[in-house]
Amino acid sequence: MKKVIIIGFLGVIAYYLLSAFASVPFGADLIKGVKDFYLDKSPNDLKVANVVTSIVVNFRGFDTLGEVTVLFLASTALGSILYRRRSHDSGLNPQRTAPEASALVQTGAKVIFPFTIMLGAYIFIHGHLTPGGGFQGGAIIATGFLLMLVSYRKFFIEHNALTWIEAIAGSTFVILGLLGLVYANNHNFLENFLPAGKLNDLLSGGIIGIIYVAVGFKVGAEITGILDTLLTVKETGLDPEEN
Amino acid sequence: MVISDPVYFIALPLLTAFLLPLFGKIYKPLIGIIPGLVFAFIAYISFDLYLNLVPGKPIVIQLAGWAPPWGINLVFSEFSGFVVTLITFLAFLVWVYSYNFKKVGFDNSKKYFTLLMLLVAGSIGVVLTGDIFNMFVFLEITAISSYGLTAFYKGRDSAEAAFKFLLIGSLSSTFILLAILLLYKQVGTLNMAEIAVKAQSIDPKMKSIIAILFMIGLGIEAEMFPMNGWVPDAYSQAPGPVAASFAGMLAKSGIYALVRVFYTVLEVDGIFDLLLIMGILTIIFAEFSAMRQTRLRRMLAYSSIGQMGLIMVAFSFNTKAGIFAGLFLMFNHAIIKSLLFLASGFLTYSTKQKKIRDLDGFGKIMPFTSLMFGLGAFAIVGLPPFSGFWGKLNMLVATADSNLYFVIALILLVAVVEVVYYFKVIGRLYFRQQHKEVEVHKPTWNAIAAMSVLAIVIIGVGIYPDLITDYLTKATNELFDKASYIHNVLPNLSLN
Amino acid sequence: MQEFLTYGIYGTAFFLMLLGLYAALVKKNLVKIVIGLSVLDSGLHLLFVAVGYISNGTAPIFSPAVVGKNVVMVDPVPQALVLTAIVIGFGVTAVALALVVRLYRKHNTTNIDEIKNLKW
After folding, report:
1. What is the value of pTM for the model shown?
2. For labelling alongside B482, which of B128, B164, B216, C66 has CA 20 to 30 A away?
3. Is residue A15 part of a domain?
4. Chain A nearest C-alpha distance from C51 (Å)
5. CATH code of residue C48
6. Cross-chain Cβ contact C41/B185 below 8 Å
């Protein structure tokens, strides 16, 4: 019975959405909008080849600050939700109980790992030139760590280091924004105050590249931390203090 | 001038939240002190900015050096400034209240303060932003920090409450995103002022679909009727100060977003009628559920939903009197409900079951907390000389102005119902003998200070409503005058 | 071809969204509910990118191969928005999974019928 009601409800939603999107034909151009401004200013003023990057980091940079905050928030909330008091499991190192992966997987992981990190770093360093950016690069770095975590039982991540990277990368973003209030032409938060450089150069786009590198570090650290928290908790399965 | 930039309201809490783990490594007590300093600072600058605001000239801040509609902008106007000042004031008091909460069994304060700080930053962002997608981002920040804060205590059913909240919340974000997507494809911009200009050309059918999607999505945080299943669970499972900040910040930013979208961004025929109906349903559902509750926190949560319903009804009149009453009710709800939740934090902490009947005779055991609870109850019901009275009075006047006599009858009926269930609690506090031994947790000095300040505000505004009516009138005018909002954000726009 | 693309791509996105919504509302297993939310998000993100497409457009990147030529570029704004939406979806999913772990630890089940301490 419940299913019938829900399917009916979904049908109503589908009908209205389809009728709404029927008037938005696929591939049609907008009459006029902010996108033309972005497509014009990004290569000419900001000297950033990747327009998506210049929107994400500059035009709508405030959104990205919020986005980074969401990741930070997720890892903090995760920590607080799965938190257990130190006194209970002190003396007992975090242990994952999953069986050791085979030698083949372990060797492969060891070989791939540095290249994964390198690829991630490449992607966020070139975020303003090629497809990709801080979020994508950070996610790739985190997959490298995930690979190591699942192949080696004894691979532990230094949480202290993660905390430092998160804090420094996050505050770099905000502080660069605040510096814009002081040094930039219009005294705006997150405004570019460095020379823009030449289109398609590595050192172009002013603070955009720097912010994306900071975002890359932060996202990599954040996702790695989240994965590690979930894996370690799930596999230890000890539960001394619930209720 | 640099120091009074509204961007600090968001940038400073974010920066502090990012750095808080490091402060903890340097010196442990900094984790508690630094958030307080930040809250005090942003409360101070918001008061300073708000009191010095020139009428009709809101502070419009562009971000990243691009003028709206290309960049994101923040608008600190009479209305948004009022809500921001309220939020920062409450945030500071919540900090004062929870500063040394760990004496009564509180742990892991680093995560708590980080989440609280991000909840505050998110709520302020929702209120200040002039960009519809940016509003969505900040709504998600408030939502995720609320999930974390709801599940903060172990041992209770808090994870269940938080999961329920998360399920409803992520469905709502889907609806908001769909609405934003449709809107963007129609007008090609995300700036609220420019959307407001271009929205006239949208096909009416499309516009009403967008409006309904927004209403479903934003109604969740504003505790609107079918989507408020999370409220009683989250309020009753979260720590006391968190419940107070949900009432004071989360619900306030939710209703602000709803009102801003329907008053300024999208003008849709009949949307206010729909809001009126939803508001009335919310009131009826909430007040009668509140009467049947046996647990104090759940009762307060349902009462909170009822108040939010009343606020929705007030805003649905689309008249100046209605907006004025709605703003007054928002103010009252934020201040009084926070006081009630803060007081109930200590009342229920001493009783295991958190049931109302366990509170017999608490008036003698915890005289101060009981007094504060009683004061809050009298105020929320709408008795003079408390600020709640003026809110309800203005509400009745506004309803009469709109010739909605059945709504007047409903408001009076609701007042009676509220009297019944609040006085049931007060009766147990003061006129019953204590029937079982409890381990009493006396409120700490800082909790007493926080509650006293709220009580003083309630009585002060109750005796001299003129303290705030002036500001409320200005905020009303700002919200009602859509053209000047558009003009202030987009000064160079030639209308068509 | 145009019609096919319109209905094919929008249809896929809507199908994913409705599938996810169905799973989130009907399934009894907490993990399946989280998967449903995730699928719902994916459909929505696909819809975002599809709406931003402009016929015969290239990626909005002014690489040396494109500079100076007159090319149509797809709308970059929905792509930027979807990046934000994906990250937010990731955060919500992570928190949801953490809550599932908490619930499983406490109740030793992931079936919501057996965890009804609060009313649903």
Report:
1. 0.93
2. B216
3. no
4. 6
5. 1.10.287.3510
6. no
